[in-house]
Amino acid sequence: MNEINVEFTCPDCDKTFSIGTSDILEKETIFCNNCGCQLSEEELHHLKLAIRYMHDNKPN
């Protein structure tokens, strides 16, 4: 799978930032660099599951 950047828009300060899928899989937390708003543990877990699913089910 080619590297994909996931774009986030902070719900608190409305700033946009992006993180590569390989970086997301390695991170314990994801937070806005502008205000510090953090993705919940459950949201990060589900995001990682989706990334792994995409990787495992890529077309040949």
UniProtKB/TrEMBL annotation:
Native species: Desulforamulus aquiferis
Protein name stated in the entry: TFIIB-type domain-containing protein
Higher taxonomy: Bacteria, Bacillati, Bacillota, Clostridia, Eubacteriales
